[in-house]
Amino acid sequence: MASITPPRGMRDFLPAEKARREGALAVIRRTYAAHGFDEIETPVMEDVQRLHSGLGGDNEKLAFTVLKRALSGDELRAAADGGDVLALADLGLRFDLTVPLARFYASHRAELPTVFRSVQIAPVWRAERPQKGRYRQFMQCDIDIIGESGQLAEAELITATAATLEALGLNGCTIRINDRRILSSLLHHCGFDPARHASVLVTIDKLDKIGVERVVEELSEQGADAAAVLGGILDALEPHLADGGVALTTEAIVGILPAGIDPDAVADLETLAGALGSLPEGVRLRFDPTLVRGMGYYTGTIFEVAHPESGSSVGGGGRYDGMIGRFLGSDVPACGFSIGFERVVDLAELPPTAGADSVALVYDPATPVAVLLSLKNALLAEGRRVRLERRPKNVKPLLAQLAASGFASVAFVDAGTSDASALEFRPLGAPAP
Q1: DSSP 8-state class, residue 191
Q2: Is 220 helix (H, G, I), strand (E, B) or coil?
Q3: DSSP state letters, 129-151
Q4: What percent of the chain has pLDDT over 90?
């Protein structure tokens, strides 16, 4: 017998859970729209060469590929012998929403405003090893600003994200900020070969999972002396990171970093912090020099959201000025911020989805269909949500299920009922007659 469970790492959602998810998505969409972002949609699949162009970091290794149609046996054997799996594929499922956005912008640039503020909320797929909070299909909620080279882009993205977190009831969030220029300067200071910076950053990005000692061990293969210098710096930084980082001021940043770290990047972070002085009370900013963001396309400011009740980040993003140029031939400034919906929805404090206008009519089986439709149509005309349910012998399980589905009240209909004004509505939980 075929399996009836979803594919590993993917999920079904029952009505109550689906309603909660849609409620959270409605809050996110409404807040993003209020901040001037326009929603777009892109295909779930992209050209496989685009997805494996080196822009997605380690996520490229987790991309699901789609085989070409009508492959011959000879083609399959040749690809297997050569070890080139991608030769069998022409498409792949998107592993994030940023690469598709870059392609979208390159395709439609002439139809878009000079500075384009986009929202994209959609599922993505990665061949992850499924575990708590990590799935193979999951929702991302992205906002991006393309065409703005100044700090206004970062400021707007952080402001809109902070407002969204507040609207979702996520208090106590910390937005940790760093700059890729600071990271590059730090690696130069330690003595790492510039050609290896990308791989060094991938290892540093594991710091919160494997600790300083293991990071230094891995990096020793790329330069033992440089790894030792970095290890000393990371050990010295550890006490300053216990509270999520330090204040976004030049004095605080310079105070924990080696001398000579990119002064322009440090000054830019202080300027950005000054512009963001009016964030919601439940959101604070901190500088974290160990923040990397593993994607290979970031070029400047990077940020990540931490919440005290989540073991992983609940959002992140940064500036990626070099990506769109891969498609257009000329660079276009770009910056984005993504909320990790699967982690946020479990933490969100949302109002109940049930309303006074959600009613269920539990009817006697002898009630004529015409009467039931007449009663339902009368209530629909009043703007109510209405469900018809046949009355079982034991009504309690039905009432519990209706309450879980978001219905606020119930009316019992017998064969003699013909007028909606005669219905008696009881809050769900009241005893059945």
Answers
A1: T
A2: helix
A3: --BTTB-SEEEEEEEEEES--ST
A4: 45
- CB–CB of 314/305 below 8 Å? yes
CA distances in angstroms from 397 to 54, 403, 412, listed in the order given: 54, 10, 15
Q: How far apart are CA 137 and CA 156, in angstroms?
A: 29
Of 98, 169, 152, nearest in space to 317 by CA: 98
Bin 171: left if φ > 0, else alpha if -120 < ψ < 50, else beta.
Answer: beta
Is 285 in contact with 273 (CB distance < 8 Å)? yes
CA–CA dist 146, 326 (Å, integer): 14
Contact 423, 376 (CB under 8 A): no
What SS3 class is residue 283?
Answer: strand
Judged against a pLDDT cut of 90, whether residue 59 lies above it is answered with: no
**What is the Cα–Cα distance from 101 to 140, expressed in whole angstroms?**
13
pLDDT at 414: 87
pLDDT in tens, 240-275: 888 888 888 899 998 898 888 889 999 999 999 999
Structure-derived torsion over alpha carbons of residues 32, 293, 140, 279, reported in degrees to the nearest 10: -30
Kindly give, in sequence order, each residue whose CB lies less than 8 Å from that of residue 271, ignoring residues fewer than 6 positions away. 151
Q: Residue 108 pLDDT more than 90?
A: yes
402-429 per-residue burial string, b: 16 or more CB within 10 A, e: under 16: bbebbbbbbbbbeeebeebeebebeebe
Helix locations, 206-317, DSSP H: 207-220, 224-237, 250-256, 263-275
Q: Which residues contact 304 (CB under 8 A, 6 or more apart)?
A: 175, 176, 288, 291, 293, 313, 315, 316
The DSSP output letter for 430 is: B
Asked if 432 and 399 count as a contact pair (C-beta separation under 8 A), the reply is yes
Q: What pLDDT, in 10s, does the model give residues 371-410? A: 999 999 999 999 899 999 999 999 999 999 888 888 889 9
Q: How, if at all, do strands 407-413 and 355-363 pair?
A: parallel
Mind listing the pLDDT tens digit for each residue in 322-363? 888 888 888 899 999 999 999 899 888 877 655 668 899 999
Residue 41: count of CB within 10 angstroms of its CB:
10
